[in-house]
Amino acid sequence: MTIAAITYHRPATLAEACALGRQHGSDAAFLAGGTELIPDYQRERETAQHLIALDSIRELRGISEEDGLLRIGALTTIAKVAASPLVRARLPALADAARAIGSPQIRSMATIGGNFCRAVPCADTPPAAIACAARVRLAGALGARELDAEAFFTGVRKTALNPGDVLVEIVVPVQPHHSGTSYQRFARRRGPALAVAAVAARVTLEQGRITGARIVLGAVAPTPLIAARAAALIEGEPPSDALFERAGALCAEDALPISDVRGSAEYRTELVRVLARRALHEAVARAAGSAQ
Amino acid sequence: MSGELMIRLNVNGEDRALAVRPNATLLAVLRDKLDLTGAKRGCGAGDCGACTVQVEGEPVASCLMLAAAANGKSIVTVEGLARDGDLHPLQKAFVKHGALQCGYCTSGALMSAKALVDRNPDPSREDIKTSLSGNLCRCGAYGRMVSAVEGWKEYDGVTLDARPHAHGERDQQRDHAVVGHGVTRYDGPDKVTGRAKYTADLRLPGMLHGKLFGSPIAHGRIMRLDVSKARALPGVVDVLTAADVPDAWYGVSPAREDEQLLAKDLVRYVGDEIAAVAAVDEETAERAIKLIEVEFEELPAVFDPVAAMAPGAPVIHPEKPRYAGNINTRVDWHFGDVEKGFAEADHVREQRFVGNRTYQAPMEPHAALARWENHAGRLTIWTSTQTPHYVHRSLSRMLGMPMGSIRVIRPPVGGGFGAKAEATPLDFCSAIFAKRTGRPVMMEYSREEMFRHFRGRHKQYIDLKIGVKQDGTITAVEQRVVLDGGAYTSYGVITAYYAGSMLPTLYKMPNYRYDGTRVYTNLPASGAFRGHGVPQPRFAFESLLDMIAEDIRLDPIEIRLRNAMTPNTRTCNALDISSCEFTATLERARDTSKWIEKKGKLPRGKGIGVGCGGFVSGAGYPIYRSDFPHSNAVIRVHEDGTGISLHIAAAEIGQGSDTVLVQMAAEELGVPYEWVWLADCDTTTSPLDLGSYSSRVTLMAGHAVQRAAAKVRAQVVAVAAAELSRDAASLVARGGRIFVKEDPAVEMDWAAAARLAFSRQGPVVGTGSYQPPKNLGGDFKGGAVGTSPAYSFSTAVAEVTMDLETGQISVDRVTDFSDAGTVINPITFHGQVEGSIVMGLGETLLEDTLFDAKGRAMNPNLHDYLIPTMYEIPEIHTAAVESFEPNGPFGAKEVGEGSLLPVLGAIANAIYDACGVRVTELPITPEKILRGLAKHGPATGVRA
């Protein structure tokens, strides 16, 4: 299937990209890896006449750590996020989420920024990033701003981006001492497949008790969903299977899944319960490992 | 910047400056501007990996990358792998390991493998699976790809030849020089280099592109159709509606011609073709399609076959009163006396089973390229089909042209599995466009259109009842099946009969009743899919037999052994079984899988199960009544005797039929495999063959080839006999030599003898043909379906591990033993069985086409219709049992379809063994497992 005729722009700087985006407003789309945008064009879900390719803007690429902040440029490919020793060491949940996406062909094209900006409910990296308390930095024709990653997602395929805004980078703060993260997802096959349900978790342990927790549900609501009740339940408690079973049940109660070809709402709810418990166990194990 | 952009690419080491449209994908530019058609279009959505190329060393889906975005980058395609004419070791490894079948995914898989070994020359099996997990292979050659990539370095500096691979399995001992040996695939080198040109890879000067416009609604009457805007679009050359095409009913089954090329009045499913456009390029044709205006009187639609039979249901074929109640086909068979049989049984159990609407999903989309030969009023068509003859005949009837004026050429076909067994609207419309415009016209389905055209598996609703004696002996079987036929017949009449006819071939059943009803619904038409009509009844039977075995406390393999078919037996439905080593397949699968040590002894969450199957080796009768021999071959020796051309129109669609036919020709001629050329499948040079369906090629085309070769050999040997002053009967031709059997030192070079023969008589030619025995089958309605010169048998044992919290199922191991008669080529034999296991796994666990309440497809793509990837494959052990089929060439019979049949039941039974949940509706999804676990808890008799 061919895609409709478009006007192709290739701005050299971020400012130029933002200006072009603002100029064309809703008739503009930013091109990163294209793995979601091109199919969206094919299905006419995307019809913007102006395609603004971001690939020559160098500041959108790369992974670095400075002043305790891990910065992942929006145009960093999913393959690079998955393979980054820095991400692996600091944010294993995010590395696992990246590795779960698509095929090697898709991962070498797709970008973390694209995974955020297309904002499909089953996207893998957003829940993991949110569990790690990530923030997003946006550039716009009117200047830069930063948001909590969870505030970036406003609905199915909807984000806080205004016309002309470009997602510049994902910024992840230093993870608390003695914390561990996990990303658990379920898909119908081991090979490339979209998530039916997913749970990301970060747990901080001190002296055998959970002192902090973030639990984020994926693919079971229009946006990544923070399971605050489950997190509150386990804070202050020593980790145990019974506790995590109860936390999983709370996550399942909070999920807002739909039924579609990948699974029924009922099944997704059950998956959330199981995946939340597994994510908490893995996060605790990793937290305990990090303390040694 | 909305005009063309200038970009620079370094492609396979050459710098190229190109003007491209901004919306052109890299794949389109490689294929259309650079004629690098090794990268294939399989899905257009990044799901299948057939378009994989390396960009700056990384594997990418070139269908999702804009060419503009590749500007300045270096690109390697499969055409760039060979260096100075020497293939890359990976390419040689793929050929030698049999890591390819239809070849359509091969270039993409090779490029993923190349990207891997560039980075990591010593990859582990896990690395390989990860790296190739995005390359879908419907032939299921995954295991061989893993081995090929793992051993790729062995092929560095090695010359690629046809000799059997060092790891070439040989299960049987036969005194043959070529047959029975794992020589490399005839089409292997072309398929690993991108040289094999599939239909959509062909380009002709002035070629137009056609697209079809299908109904957006499931059932309605066309009130207004306006194509004027489409016609007016610049670049559009022609538009077809019903008024422009023959007003004829057609269909592959002469008994039920119920399709119209373009809908005149009624549309019957979402996608039913209404109009077609031909334009200067595909993009223009697609834009024109969107300008077609149509208004309908929408009619109530029905999507369930049982509802479709109810009084007051929408009538789908009102023009044809014979289909009252939407009933397309009724079968009512009764053999023996089932009432008496059930009365004699000690135990009777019945169960309802429901199948799934699975799609063949060959990796290559259907395509046709037609050229009108103006000077002669003739048509040439290149088409992706497994049945060139049926396409030929359908074109002749539709166009009102004698077959002699139509030339059908079948380029390499990227998989079929039944999806390409009849003429499609692409064939007809491209031909009509070509005639009207005088220009060649290419038409291809998109992946979504493939799902709409369908012709996949009938979803069957099966009520099965089996009665047994206390010792497990079957006394009676009763099966009632309702088949969801979709909107048209396709092969469905035959499907309805096959669903009943094959059950009695495996187990002896003195009394059998089969009641089959194929029903029209407003869904895409179901057709013939590997194992034609039988996999779901076989799944039901194998499941119910296990349930009964448990009831009467008999081991599942034991109950099968007690009822197993024996050689030289006539079944209750009058099918004649000749060779039959079914018992051997059961015993060897039992022993090799260590069944006795495992069955009933595995921890909860792990299970083992058995399933059996078998199929015809070619249908005993053709689709339409005709006295033509079913297969025909011509063999001609080249003048200097060192080359031989085999002309046969059998259809290589990945199964390896070209290779086994060449082997049989070489064996019978007495020459090396490498001497034989297979002529292109072209109706002007190759005589009729009915094609690749009903697993008929090895046996039927094999006979034709063997007979043609024997005639050639006789002519050459006669010359040698005269030269050596020996009696021809005392001579043997083998390996390019002709010698005295009792005194091998007395010999003559085969080619020298052939040269002499040519010098004396002119062309040395032999012809051969094959017609199945006359009067096969019983004298009852439908008695022809299921008849065959020979039947295959197989047993599979599956072992699974389950996640009892999510319901996820992993198939760990499958052990399969087949009775395929003499194995002509062990590599293609094992490849077929392994592919069946992979496909069967998908049908059992993953696959189903789904529709919304309006009949619109919900998953017509390869990211929601999930087929197995390299990650899903179990450890597979396959082998052939010793067997010889008297009705087959060299003792051979089929394996390609029969080997699918055991898989569904084996996995279902293993799942029950693992968790106590008996899922009777396919596919067996994790969700159904959890529902079952919640309902029953751990079933009684299952280990805690």
What would you say this structure looks like, in words?
The complex is a heterodimer of chains A (292) and B (944). By secondary structure, chain A is α+β, with helices and mostly antiparallel strands. Chain A folds into three domains: 7-53, Uridine Diphospho-n-acetylenolpyruvylglucosamine Reductase, domain 2; 58-172, Uridine Diphospho-n-acetylenolpyruvylglucosamine Reductase, domain 3 (2-Layer Sandwich), CATH 3.30.465.10; 180-291, Enolase-like, domain 1 (2-Layer Sandwich). Chain A is 37% helix and 24% strand. In chain A, the strands form four sheets. Chain A has a five-stranded antiparallel beta sheet. In chain A, strands 11-12-13-14 form a four-stranded antiparallel beta sheet, with helices on both faces. The mean pLDDT of chain A is 96. In chain B, the strands form eight sheets. An eight-stranded mixed beta sheet of chain B has the order 8-10-6-17-14-15-16-27, with helices on both faces. In chain B, strands 2-1-5-3-4 form a five-stranded mixed beta sheet, with helices on both faces. Residues 939-944 of chain B have low confidence and may be disordered. Chain B has five domains: 5-80, Ubiquitin-like (UB roll) (Roll); 89-196, [2Fe-2S]-binding domain (DNA polymerase, domain 1), CATH 1.10.150; 201-299 and 365-413 and 420-453, Aldehyde Oxidoreductase, domain 3 (Alpha-Beta Complex); 534-619 and 787-936, 2-Layer Sandwich (Aldehyde Oxidoreductase, domain 4); 631-770, Aldehyde oxidase/xanthine dehydrogenase, molybdopterin binding domain (Aldehyde Oxidoreductase, domain 4). In chain B, helix 15 runs parallel beside helix 23 (901-915) and helix 19 (657-669) packs parallel to helix 20. With 944 residues, chain B is an alpha+beta fold. The interface between A and B is large, with 45 and 57 residues.
Mind sketching the topology for me?
The complex is a heterodimer of chains A (about 290) and B (about 950).
Chain A: E1 7-9, H1 14-24, E2 28-31, H2 37-42, E3 50-53, E4 63-66, E5 69-73, H3 78-83, H4 85-90, H5 92-100, H6 104-107, H7 112-117, H8 125-131, E6 135-139, E7 145-148, H9 149-152, E8 153-155, E9 158-159, E10 166-172, E11 179-186, E12 197-206, E13 209-218, E14 225-226, H10 228-234, H11 241-254, H12 265-291
Parallel strand pairs in A: 1-3, 2-3
Antiparallel strand pairs in A: 4-5, 5-10, 6-7, 6-10, 8-9, 11-12, 12-13, 13-14
Helix pairs in contact in A: 10-11, 11-12
Chain B: E1 5-11, E2 14-20, H1 26-33, E3 52-55, E4 58-61, E5 74-76, H2 89-97, H3 106-119, H4 125-132, H5 142-150, H6 188-193, E6 208-214, E7 220-226, H7 228-232, E8 236-240, E9 266-267, E10 273-279, H8 282-290, E11 293-298, H9 305-309, E12 327-335, H10 338-344, E13 347-354, E14 367-373, E15 378-383, H11 388-399, E16 406-410, H12 425-437, E17 441-444, H13 447-453, E18 459-468, E19 474-486, H14 492-501, E20 512-520, H15 535-551, H16 556-563, E21 569-570, E22 576-577, H17 582-592, H18 595-598, E23 606-613, E24 631-637, E25 644-647, H19 657-669, E26 676-678, E27 681-682, H20 697-724, E28 731-734, E29 737-740, E30 743-749, H21 750-761, E31 764-770, E32 793-802, E33 809-819, H22 826-845, E34 875-880, H23 901-915, H24 926-936
Parallel strand pairs in B: 1-5, 6-17, 15-16, 19-20, 25-26, 33-34
Antiparallel strand pairs in B: 1-2, 3-4, 3-5, 6-10, 7-9, 7-11, 8-10, 12-20, 13-18, 14-15, 14-17, 16-27, 18-19, 21-22, 23-32, 24-25, 24-31, 28-29, 29-30, 32-33
Helix pairs in contact in B: 2-5, 3-4, 11-12, 15-23, 19-20, 20-21, 22-23
